[in-house]
Each structure stands twice: as C-alpha cells, then as structure tokens.
C-alpha cells in the first residue's frame, strides 16, 4: 500500500495515497439502465454505509468519547479525508 505523509506532521499517522478507480464497462451498463432516482438512492445508501462504518471505527478506537465527539470526528473525516 502506498502512503502519503500525514498533513499534520504526525509521524505515526499514515494515509493511503489517493487512487482513481474506474467503473468497469459491465457496471457502467447496469448503472445506465437505472433511473436518476435509482442512481441517487444507490449513492445515498453508500454514503450512509460509509458514515456508519466510520462512526463505528472511531467509536471502537475511542471508547471514552461521547456520541457528539464521535459525530464530529466522523463528519470531519468525511469532509476532509474523502
């Protein structure tokens, strides 16, 4: 895995290098058959899944944190690290 240096200078924090992923032609064909509303629903479901996964990870890594702290950390991660 390639990693980029931490933006905050912390030597212990390592981040993945950005990867550009391309939709394969078969998936593109499936998505072309969907209505805009169906594609939006898929994207929204993926966003909810990502948010839930990030919140669970932050909660597991910081068991003493309040729900508000977890919520704010997850929002920060989704806004700045996507």
Topology (SSEs and partners):
Elements: E1 3-4, E2 15-16, H1 25-32, H2 36-61, H3 67-80
Antiparallel strand pairs: 1-2
Helix pairs in contact: 2-3
Radius of gyration: 17 Å
Number of domains: 1
Secondary-structure-based class equals: mainly alpha
Walk across the major sheet and give the strand order. Answer: 1-2
The largest pleated sheet is described as: 2 strands, antiparallel
N- to C-terminal separation?
17 Å
The number of helices is 3
Overall pLDDT metric: 85
Unreliable runs, pLDDT <50, ≥5 residues?
1-7
Helix content: 55-70%
- Which descriptor suits the 3D outline? elongated
Strands, count: 2
Strand proportion, as a percent range, falls in under 5%
Instruction: Give the SSE order as H and E letters.
Output: EEHHH
Task: Describe this protein's structure.
It is a single chain. With 82 residues, the protein is mainly alpha-helical. It has one domain (3-80). It contains three helices and two strands; from the N terminus they run ββααα. A two-stranded antiparallel sheet has the order 1-2. α2 (36-61) crosses α3. The chain is elongated, with a radius of gyration of 17 Å. The chain starts with a strand and ends with a helix.
Brief overview, please?
This protein has 82 residues and is mainly alpha-helical.
Write a concise keyword list for the protein shown above.
single chain, 82 residues, 2 strands, elongated
């Amino acid at each position: 895995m390639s990693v980029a240096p931490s933006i905050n200078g912390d030597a212990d924090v390592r981040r993945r290098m950005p990867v550009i992923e391309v939709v394969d032609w078969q998936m593109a064909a499936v998505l072309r058959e969907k209505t805009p509303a169906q594609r939006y629903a898929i994207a929204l479901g993926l966003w909810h899944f990502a948010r839930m996964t990030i919140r669970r990870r932050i909660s597991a890594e910081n068991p003493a944190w309040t729900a508000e702290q977890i919520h704010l950390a997850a929002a920060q991660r989704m806004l700045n690290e996507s």
